[in-house]
Amino acid sequence: MPRNSLYSLRFFRNFAFVFLAVLAARSASASPVRPIDIQRAGRGLSTRGYLAAGQPVAGDPYLPQSWHLQASRVFDAWNVTRGDRRVVLAFVDSGIDYHNPDIAPNLWRNFREIPGDHVDNDRNGFIDDIIGWNFVNGKWGVGVPDPLDRAGHGTFISGIAAAAEGNGIGGAGVCPNCSIMTLRFLNHDGLGDTEDAILGIRYAVHNGASVLNLSFAGEGYDKDLHDALVEASARDIVVVAAAGNDGINNDKDEIYPANYIFPNMLTVAATDPRGRLWENSNWGLRHVQIAAPGTDIIGPWFKAWDTGSGTSLAAPIVAAAAGLIRSANPRLNAPQVVAILMSTVRHSIALEGKIRSAGVLDVGAAMRCAVTQGLPCIRRQF
Ligand code: CA
Ligand code: CA
Questions:
Q1: Ligand 2 centroid vs 59 CA: distance in angstroms?
Q2: Could you tell me the CATH number of the domain that includes residue 273?
Q3: Catalytic site includes residue 312
């Protein structure tokens, strides 16, 4: 692979599910999002357990299958907040299906821009940038702004983070009241140029993102990519990167952006429902900070919902968790948000010596800390 190329971290989809999902989409064009094979309800999480926990019984049909919400204690955090529209989660990825009814209500909108008038109303260098930008065919401020997802990856991860909740369709994102900003740089094959990823990051940094999700990887240190993340750090943005799906130790390899280290950044490994590292997840005591659910994660896949496994899917869970924390306590700076998430993980023996925090995301515990005077949870040893 040429040095200048990046690729989305391909997640492993359940092919039986894909087949069912396609059938559902074809047979129900009026309501493309329908429940699929309930027998497959999230491994290790029964519907009964979900209800017994006293959690809200919303109308979204896939909530009982969303084991990651329970495992990372998202429902506990929702007792405080389901997010704030002003907290913008930016996804530098393959774009987004903005027609998806579970996505559309939560898109970030650039209200300072008048759609379709061919004028850069807000003078940010981009003409008619309404929900983000497409850097695959358009460069900085030039070209067609349409970030429609041709690969599915960007929509999937955006939905895991912030799909609408309580609307009776699909599932729900971890931060369902956060806003989704879309910066497309991966093409229909999930491939993209480092240069375009950098442009996407810089757009997010300069247009109000609170959290930046990077579910892609490339080999080799790139100074310009590093510098873009320095800008994100200076603007107090939480940066979340996927660790990679090669089953390797990142401390002995050159995987970027995963291996950049900043106090406002978390690199995420993927775990299964028992808190064990997913077999293909990368790890690294120095370069991988936290783990989050990453196997059989349900999210919007084209016109249906489907499950997949991969660190690409674990990262947006952490990104959205940061969104919840920032919604509940806007006074926290990005390094504090990162420290809270690191300090409140659910410890897992299986992650000792592999992941810096040796634990799995616990948004409920993080939320309790984030709204408590003095942030009593924060440990200094990270
Ligand atoms: Ca503009
Ligand atoms: Ca929904």
A1: 8
A2: 3.40.50.200
A3: yes
The SS3 assignment for 367 reads helix
Catalytic residue among 60, 76, 84, 93: 93
Say whether 217 sits in a helix, a strand or coil. strand
Give residue-wise pLDDT tens across range 68-101: 999 999 999 999 999 999 999 999 999 999 999 9
Q: Is residue 26 predicted with pLDDT exceeding 50?
A: no
Ligand closest to the CA atom of residue 123: 1
Question: How many domains does the chain fold into?
Answer: 1
Residue 381 falls inside a structural domain: no
Query: Which pLDDT tens digit goes with each residue over 253-312?
Result: 989 999 999 999 999 999 999 999 999 999 999 999 999 999 999 999 888 899 999 999
Ligand nearest to the CA of 206: 1
| 330 domain-assigned | yes
- Catalytic-residue membership of 153: yes
Residue 377 lies in a domain: no
C-alpha 168 – ligand 2 centre gap (Å): 6
72 counts as catalytic: no
Q: How confident is the model at residue 60 (pLDDT cuts 50, 70, 90)?
A: very high
* Domain span holding position 9: 5-370
Q: Any bridge partners for residue 92, and if so which?
A: 183
Asked whether the beta carbons of 74 and 318 are under 8 A apart, the reply is no
Instruction: Please pick, among 215, 312, 348, 357, the residue that the annotation labels catalytic.
Output: 312
How does pLDDT run across 325-337, given as a tens digit for each residue?
999 999 999 999 9
Which among 153, 233, 306, 362 is annotated as catalytic? 153
User: Cα(4) to centroid of ligand 2, in Å?
Assistant: 37
- Per the CB < 8 A criterion, the answer to whether 131 and 109 are in contact is yes
Write the DSSP assignment of 282-302 as a string of letters.
Answer: -BBTTT--EEEE-SSEEEEET
SS3 65: helix
Interhelix angle 311-328/334-343, rounded to 10 degrees, is 120
- For residue 379, being part of any structural domain is answered with no
Lookup: tokens for 35:
């429940």
